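Problem 12. The chain below contains 450 residues. Write out its predicted structure in token notation.
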Amino acid sequence: MKDSNYLKERNAKSIWHPMAHPADSLNTPPTIVTGAHGTRIVDVDGHEVVDAVGGLWNVNLGYSCQPVKDAIAAQLDRLPYYSIFRGTSNDCVIELGDKLQEFFEPDGLTRAFYTSGGSDSVETALRLARQYHKVRGEHGRTKYLSLKKGYHGTHFGGASVNGNANFRTAYEPLMGGCFHIPAPYTYRNPFNETDPERLAQLCLQALEDEIAFQGAGTIAAMIMEPVLGAGGVIPPHASFMPGVLEICSKNGILLIADEVITAFGRTGSWSGSRHWGVQPDFMCTAKAITNGYFPFGAVMIADHVVETFEKDETGKAAIGHGYTYSGHPVGAAAAIACLDETQRLNVKDNAAARGAELYQGLLDLQRDFDVIGDVRGGHGLMCALELVSDRTTKAPTDKSVPAKIQKTAYEAGTMVRVSGPNIILSPPLILTSDDVSVILAGLRAGFSAV
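Solution.
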């Protein structure tokens, strides 16, 4: 490995980083991670910290999951790649399909369409939703509904249904026919409503109003995260997602659950949809499906959608969509091992228990530091702190404040993620109580510094 000074010097002179201004890395060299084990990462200078970001919401089983690493190595020796486009398949994707069908049976999902990651999964679900209606003869159903503050990846389709201007403005005009309704964001919403249940009803009414305005017969699907993730960890009231499904079903609109983050235990349930007692028509998965060790994803499809496609005799159901790496055998082998280990460790229960400890610790921090305007969490291991300069007006803090907190917390042993005025926590689901204490101590050091 090249030495520390070389890597810091060369980083910004050879690569651009996602989600960053190209000049940022020139002016402020990033943390260069060179090693990891368990819940911890090690940087190029040998500094070791608890990774409270979990890679990027995806390293649920930590960095030392030997069964997944062994599965990848063995598969590379046996079959490193082959396509599953029409006419060919491989043994790994078939075995994984059976395991996913069993895992998601309570969600009413019986088929998998393999992708290379989360953005691919969203793009696939959006396409298949339109095609479903065309197969049924409803060619006018082409529009999409989604939530403001929602995040659905970076493809043109995903960016078009994204509800955050930061991921849209630079690339507009985006795809037409995409409309957004208010999110059930209790801390900030256009209704000035602070009661979560009442807010959920107001947002559901806004959904019904938008459907009536657009015309139900023009809308293909509604896409939503069971808990909004990148938008700032915004959990809705328990009545919200069931209410969305009821309204969509009544109007012939498909519900796409974007579970790229929430599937496989992060909410304390095996899926975010199951967390709220909902069976969606499509579910987008990726990230934790291979623990981040291999780029892979899957769109899970409800039985009634499957029946419509598989019984088609017109040819309209032929799928003209796919990726070179759809069903990659190494990714499938990693996913099989990952799913086995995820269930063996029962990480959803640990996520619920450690998540409760972390959430309570964050509430304690809020009592001690006025810069913390809102604490969000309470649903597994996904939490956020929203920082303000004034609690009464809720004015966002200057961006230098969360940056300083992040830097000081890192020095004190904790890696956290900053997104606008939010500090987001999404640690591995194998987190221990001792790890929670380290995270909270790091944050306390960070807030003390400001």
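Discussion. The mean pLDDT is 97. Students who got a different answer should revisit the alignment rule from Section 12.3.
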